[in-house]
Amino acid sequence: MYICLACNGIGETEKSCVNCGSAMVDMGKIADQFDDYTPYMDDEHIKQVDGDPHSLEQHSCLHLYQCPNCENEQQIALQEVFIT
After folding, report:
1. What pLDDT, on a 0 to 100 scale, did the predictor assign at position 32?
2. Could you give the angle at the alpha carbon of 39 between the alpha carbons of 36 and 41, nearest 5°?
3. What 3-state class would DSSP assign to 27?
4. Which residues contact 48 (CB under 8 A, 6 or more apart)?
């Protein structure tokens, strides 16, 4: 099974804003931003509509990062890890 460390609270990924250099805030999975029910849906189905056509086969989790300083938003694919 593959899991996203950020989604499961195991690790954080720090990203700097490309505009101002400030530390960006992880706002969660892109798909969780769609509506109130997507956080409860199966990840394999969500990856089919998350905007990254390769996220399922490459085991990546697409997150939305936002800069608290300049409000820049950026989509970043985080690599999932295999656990047994």
Report:
1. 78
2. 105
3. strand
4. 56
| Amino acid in the structure at residue 59 | H
* pTM across the whole model: 0.80
Phi-psi region of 28 (alpha: psi -120 to 50; beta: other; left: phi over 0): left
Q: Which two tokens stand for residue 52?
A: 């990254």
Q: Are residues 6 and 80 in contact, defined by beta-carbon separation less than 8 angstroms?
A: no
Cβ contact 64:33 at 8 Å: yes
Tens of pLDDT along 20-78? Answer: 999 999 999 887 777 776 666 666 766 766 767 778 888 999 999 999 999 999 999 99
Token pair listed for 15: 């990203």
Instruction: State how far the Cα of 48 lies from the Cα of 1, in Å rounded to an integer.
Output: 18
